[in-house]
Amino acid sequence: MPLSGSFSLRPPPRHPALDAARGFAVLAMVIGHTLHALLSPSARENEWVQHYWSLRGLTAPLFLLVSGWAVVAAMDRRTEGSRGIYGRLVRRALLLIFLGYLLRWPGWEAVQALGWSEALMAQLFAFDALQCIGASLLVGATVLSLARGSRIRTLVLGVLAVGIVLASPAVWQFGPNLPIALRQATGMDGSQFTLFPWASYFFVGSLLAWLLRMLRPGWPQGVVLAALGAGMLGATLKLPADWAPTSAWLVAFRVGQGLIVLAVANFAPVRLTRLLAPLGLLSLWVYLLHLPVVYGWAGTPGLSDRVGPTLELVPALLAGLGLLAACYAVARLLRRLRRLTFPWRPAATTVGTSFGRSQRV
């Protein structure tokens, strides 16, 4: 069977490599949040838990890498062209930003207690993963729509990928002079996923997708990704470690880890990656469902308050796996109901589009 181009996004079959990478990130995310909320202080000292804490920092960078790769794939659709898909990507980006801020809603009681104060504004406008992905998607789709020519796109994506992380220390120093909403979005300690430097992961993924678009999925792309990831990890391990939130070393280290995961997803047989791909396809739903359960929402307490850090490792793991299974089941049900309610609507363009439709090499 002949192999198609790596960015052919014509109708199925759908290659599950990136969906599998996202599925792995979803698994790590739900388990990590549950362990963080439920593990007792003694269980946190477990050697395996300590190793896991160091690895779970890869989850968000991996999501952003995959999202950046996906927007390039979506904008390169042969059937619609870049401008045809642009509107759908913008709507997707705005939806992600809205949902991200919705998850930050503290409830009317907290609003009344805090009043119209900076403390309330800081809580309402805290910048999390969904807002970061949505804003990066909006900028990336606009840049790819306006930029013409392979060299210009390469240059612009490269400047964004490298420039954002290099500018992060200066932006964080200038941040206190900005309005609090912009301060939270661009760089501030109160937000976990500020645009500087987190958006750089998104544009690294976009740049790689653009540079590797002529290679076939599977071994050709996997070898390049593995070589780049190993090279970046090797380079960072020779330099002094810097775990500061604006550290270029930390971004390079996480990018290297993410590329290794993407390479493994490319090398793995399709039958294996299809086990994780369904989680990746429903990653947004799982994200939206599990966070209120673990941490609560709008004044309703979650597991972190109802149970608290009291469980040992095995019960906490079982709770995490149970929560993951429940969220996945509800997400599948909601997707099916949506299809039954709106059968005429095409499938939405996701921020985790797969590599392409070709088979493994």
Defining key terms:
transmembrane; 17 helices; mainly alpha; globular; 0% strand; single chain; 361 residues; disordered N terminus
Largest sheet properties: none
Quaternary structure of the protein: single chain
Strand content: under 5%
Assign the structural class, choosing from mainly alpha, mainly beta, alpha/beta, alpha+beta, or little secondary structure.
Answer: mainly alpha
> Helix tally?
17
The overall pLDDT, averaged over residues, is 85
Uncertain residue ranges: 1-15, 348-361
Terminal residue distance: 11 Å
Q: How many domains?
A: 1
Walk me through what this model shows:
There is one protein chain. The chain is mainly alpha-helical and 361 residues long. The chain has one domain (17-341). The protein is 70% helix and 0% strand. It has 17 helices and no strands. The chain has helices at 17-38, 41-44, 47-55, 59-75, 81-102, 108-114, 118-124, 129-146, 150-174, 180-186, 195-211, 219-237, 248-267, 270-281, 283-295, 303-306, 313-341. The N and C termini lie close together (11 Å).
